[in-house]
Design goal:
The protein is an alpha/beta fold and about 525 residues long. It has 17 helices and 14 strands.
């Protein structure tokens, strides 16, 4: 039986409410087509039925009238509140109808991230301080459950490698044989009690993605906006306002349509989580904070600090110091969201001030001292000035040491426990027209060669992680004259990069050099002379 037929059959058996909340969510994010089909055939019906029965225990009465559709136009207005939508919204008792005062104990979230950093986000969600359950890896993100809205608050405070934390409001099924606009309109209109989510004077904004669909993201945005506005009018409320061009919406919404599935989220984070609050200006070639934190996770920096509280991390081409600042914040267990001053969920009607205050107090109490060092070097003094200013705002200057100069001439007092570096890619020269595609700047080649000198001279018998975004195969990494033993593909800002790990060989003594030279000479001699 096809997934769509199964959904319709289960819908009839369960009273017309077959909008499985998380089976569709998991299928949309976690599995290829054949696995998705198998998952729907084996578990969708059972999971959906149990979820609906749980909802019925919490909600004694639901309005289930289907909106009628006028031929060739927008569906007629008819108010409908989906029980699963109200359950997912997690409203407090004073914000819902008296017959629907209790909400299910599980809320569903999705933390987005740069493709390739899902493992890092999973590791961060496993932190007991966040307190989540049922962590599942997806594509460009990780889904998880929480027992209350405090889970979402803690996730926003603690996630370093994620971009946004989204709270799932509703999952619906789009009939591929019907008008896509009308289906999206219907799904959005009944997704949640919008008159509760959008008090008078509040604004909302819709962002949408449509993948493997026969309609565009613009149509999704239009259908969702119309459905929400008509719901508000039917409820006797004024139409929601549009946010000003430079203002943030009170209720930012994100819609993801994948094939015939419709997923609607509240964006709890608003702006990207890489905006920590300590940086007011970025160097043109600097790495964003979320990507840097994820790379540090992949490089094993948390494990290094746990094994050696006095560990040293080095970045020989540190630029504005993103790796180093994030490394110190991680070592000191500083929640990255503590410095942010604005969160959209603080304006929501179901904002739990007590839970938020407890999350902030717990995060501040978890900060610890650190006796290690983060050392960096760069040839651009202007970038180092930005790094020091940002480090001062982040409060990490006590653990930071910066030096202006060429990496090849940088000498360290001891071998660092970990080296992470983001060498120049040359992408800015391509973008500005200074280079043609396929052309390599000699300055770029020399920079990588200088990096090779530093690594072999100062990082003997240690691990080094290098981020390569040059996009020219191994042309730049060949300048290191080393062989990587591991790599990970990461997409950052639309650029495909590779994180490569090298183990630098230990330095040879004078006797070892002589022995190696003799062995080389013997290998060169013809067999007859040996």
């Amino acid at each position: 039986m096809k997934a769509t037929s199964l959904m319709r059959s289960a819908s009839r058996l369960t009273g017309g409410h077959m909008r499985t909340r998380f089976t569709a969510f998991a299928a949309a994010h976690h599995a290829p087509h054949c696995i998705r089909a198998a998952a729907w055939q084996t578990s969708a019906f059972c999971q959906a039925t149990s979820a609906l029965e749980a909802n019925r225990r919490y909600f004694s009465r639901a309005q289930t009238q289907q909106p009628s559709v006028r031929s060739g136009g927008r569906p007629q207005r008819a108010q409908r509140h989906s029980p699963r939508a109200q359950a997912a919204a997690g409203f407090p008792a004073d914000a819902v109808d008296q017959q629907q005062q209790q909400a299910p104990s599980n809320l569903y979230y999705f933390a987005t991230c740069h493709p390739g950093l899902e493992d890092a986000v999973m590791a961060e969600l496993a932190n007991p301080a966040v307190g989540v359950t049922n962590i599942r890896m997806g594509r460009s993100g990780v889904s998880f459950n929480g027992v209350d809205v405090g889970t979402g608050y803690r996730a926003n405070l603690w996630l370093r490698s994620a971009i946004r934390v989204l709270q799932l409001l509703a999952v619906d099924q789009i009939d591929p044989e019907a008008d896509p606009y009308q289906e999206i309109y219907r799904a959005a209109r009944q997704a949640a009690p919008w008159e509760q989510l959008l008090p008078a004077g509040n604004t909302f904004k819709v962002q949408a993605r449509a993948n493997s669909c026969n309609f565009t993201s613009n149509l999704v945005c239009q259908g969702v906006r119309d459905g929400i506005c008509d719901h508000m009018v039917d409820a006797g409320r004024p139409r929601p306002l549009k946010p000003e061009d430079t203002a943030a919406a009170d209720l930012p919404l994100i819609v993801n349509c994948f094939q015939d599935r419709f997923l609607l989220y509240r964006n709890m984070s608003g702006d990207s989580l890489h905006r920590r609050g300590y940086r007011d200006a970025m160097h043109r070639a600097s790495l964003n904070e979320s990507a840097a934190a994820g790379i540090l996770h992949m490089a094993g920096w948390p494990q290094t600090v746990a094994a050696n509280p006095r560990a040293t991390i080095a970045d020989p081409m540190c630029g504005s110091g993103t790796f180093l600042i994030e490394a110190v914040l991680m070592a000191r267990n500083v929640a990255p969201g503590l410095n942010r001053t604005y969160w959209p969920f603080q304006q929501w009607v179901d904002f739990d001030r007590r839970a938020w205050g407890e999350a902030v107090r717990s995060a501040k109490a978890a900060t610890r001292p650190w006796e290690g060092r983060a050392v960096g070097c760069d040839v651009h003094e202007g970038a180092l000035d930005l790094a020091w200013r940002d480090a001062t705002a982040a409060g990490v200057t006590a653990n930071l040491r910066l030096r202006a100069g060429n990496a090849a001439k940088w000498e360290l007092s001891e071998v660092p426990d970990l080296t992470v570096v983001n060498p120049p890619w040359g992408q800015r020269l391509l973008d500005s027209g200074g280079m043609e595609q396929g052309e390599v700047s000699q300055d770029l080649v020399h920079a990588w060669q200088d990096l090779s000198v530093f690594l072999k001279g100062q990082c003997a018998d240690s691990d080094v992680h290098v981020l390569d975004g040059s996009g020219d195969g191994a042309r730049m990494t060949r300048q290191l004259r080393m062989k990587s033993d591991w790599h990970k593909n990461i997409t950052i800002g639309g650029v495909d990069t590779r994180l490569l790990r090298y183990h630098v060989l230990p330095k040879l003594t004078a006797e070892q050099y002589v022995e190696r030279g003799a062995k080389f000479e013997r290998a060169r001699r013809p067999r007859a002379q040996q």
